[in-house]
Design goal:
By secondary structure, this protein is an alpha+beta fold. Helices cover about 30% and strands about 35% of the residues. The strands form 2 sheets. Strands 1, 2, 3, 4, 5, 6 and 7 form a 7-stranded mixed β-sheet that branches. A two-stranded antiparallel ribbon has the order 8-9. Strand 6 and strand 7 form a beta hairpin.
Length: about 230
């Protein structure tokens, strides 16, 4: 193999890696744009599988499309931030793993509530005449926690927490019997609802501050861009 062949092989490998990254980022963009079902479905092969773990498994492009058509009602706000890609290309197929960090708002029967979610994606990709597409997307949930607690609630910790003297009276256990949430919440973690403390992220969704004001600052400090007289 000549140096020219090596260079061509490297360029093709880099182009494939970048194309797969763009595929994943496009998927996240469609999810964050109100779960655009047609856009999301277009990224999958005809025989693809979307395996959401506790959110269910959906076989085939049309089943995936149908599932995402109702997602914006269940999750009216989400920001999919994917990092740490490990992508292996083998000819016209590839695999990839990613970490997901996602602030989100879930529409429960009693109202909208904010959560933190963290998960791992394990993907399979296939080169098609339309370019790289998803052959399989599998999600392994790592953390799901109310926005105000920012810690995962598991079966072993929630029984004690729910019985504590300061437990919120609105604490509830979500099960298969909860309307509209049987699939998404089927693993049965108990989630505490505190609208007063999760209101900030809901307000941010409806009326976000300017981007330069969203990072936390020391107490008493002011933003120079919003307060020109600030020291």
């Amino acid at each position: 193999m000549t140096q020219t062949d090596d260079t061509a092989k490297l360029v093709r490998w880099l182009a494939d890696i970048e194309a797969i990254k763009q595929l994943k980022h496009t998927y996240c963009g469609y999810c964050d744009a109100g779960y655009d079902a047609d856009g999301i479905a277009s990224l999958f092969t005809e025989d693809a599988v979307w395996d959401g773990g506790p959110m269910g498994t959906h076989d085939g492009r049309e089943a995936i499309r149908t599932f995402f058509q109702g997602s914006s009602k269940r999750v009216p706000f989400a920001l999919h931030m994917v990092v740490n890609p490990i992508i292996q290309v083998d000819g016209d197929t590839a695999t990839g793993s990613w970490y997901l960090w996602q602030p989100m708002v879930y529409a429960l029967p009693e109202g909208e509530h904010a959560y933190w979610m963290s998960a791992r994606y394990d993907d399979r990709y296939r080169r098609t005449p339309q370019g790289w597409q998803f052959e399989r997307v599998a999600i392994t949930l790592k953390v799901l926690a109310p926005y105000e607690k920012a810690l995962p609630q598991t079966e072993s910790t929630m029984s004690t927490d729910a019985e504590s003297p300061d437990a919120d009276s609105s604490s509830s256990r979500l099960t298969h019997d909860d309307p509209g949430s049987s699939a998404f919440w089927s693993w049965g973690w108990a989630l505490r609802s505190r609208p007063s403390t999760s209101r900030s992220i809901l307000h941010f969704r409806r009326s976000p501050r300017p981007s330069h004001c969203r990072l936390p600052r020391f107490a008493g400090s002011r933003c120079r861009m919003c307060s020109p007289t600030a020291a």
